[in-house]
Amino acid sequence: MQHRPGRPGDEYGSQVSPGAGIRTRSPTRPAVLRQPMRCPQRGRVDRAGMSKPTVATIGVYGASLEGFLASLHDADVRLLVDVRQRRGVRGREYAWANSLRLQAALAEAAIEYRHHLELAPTTELRELQYREDDRRGEGKRSRSVLAPEYRRRYIEEILDRVDMGAFAAGLPRRHAAALMCVERDARACHRSLIADRLAREHGARVLDLLP
């Protein structure tokens, strides 16, 4: 299992409306879309003694830096796990999400950052999904679902080969962790497949954040 801080070569080269939406998933069945609601404020939930992790998912598109950080704060996230292959986002409005800038902002907010490249899709898999997006008339920023073939291959070629027991063991218990990629909707991103595996096999409580 790999995790690493950012590198200067990951860069390509902001302001917060709090009130994130949230979807809660059951560990034993697929996520059910719920009406957006505010996450509990930091400190409201006593996680002392909890043996199962709480895992949030969060994307970049549609968010400002301030909204992104506010969503993490409201969900009591103290660890952000970046599962992107390329840690840069095109567009001036998302410059804050490029690796080094994001890490600086997280450090200031007292949130740990880890990059797990082994959980990122390969370029071939990403291109497979782009072809499905073209077929459906969707773009990466408007994607609503993952292609069935992408899901199957990501699980077989990526997820099944990662020691998720060790990954889960490294997650905090007294606070939440968050899986981060770029798509706004977790259902349109491989982070939902990671979260599903953590819920099903490791009892994680999953929250989908919508900054």
Structure, described:
This protein is α/β, with parallel strands linked by helices and 211 residues long. It has a single domain (52-210), classed as Cobalt-precorrin-4 Transmethylase, domain 1. The protein has helices at residues 65-74, 99-108, 123-136, 148-157, 164-169, 191-202, and strands spanning 21-25, 54-58, 77-82, 112-115, 176-180, 205-210. A six-stranded mixed beta sheet has the order 1-6-2-5-3-4, with helices on both faces. β3 (77-82), α2 and β4 (112-115) form a beta-alpha-beta unit. α3 (123-136) packs antiparallel against α4. It is globular. The model is unreliable at 5-20 and 26-49 (pLDDT under 50).
- Based on secondary structure, the structural category is alpha/beta
CATH topology: Cobalt-precorrin-4 Transmethylase, domain 1
Q: What is the name of the CATH class?
A: Alpha Beta
Overall morphology: globular
Query: Could you tell me the number of beta strands?
Result: 6
Q: Provide the domain count.
A: 1
SSE layout:
Layout lengths: L20 E5 L28 E5 L6 H10 L2 E6 L16 H10 L3 E4 L7 H14 L11 H10 L6 H6 L6 E5 L10 H12 L2 E6 L1
Parallel strand pairs: 2-5, 2-6, 3-4, 3-5
Antiparallel strand pairs: 1-6
Helix pairs in contact: 3-4
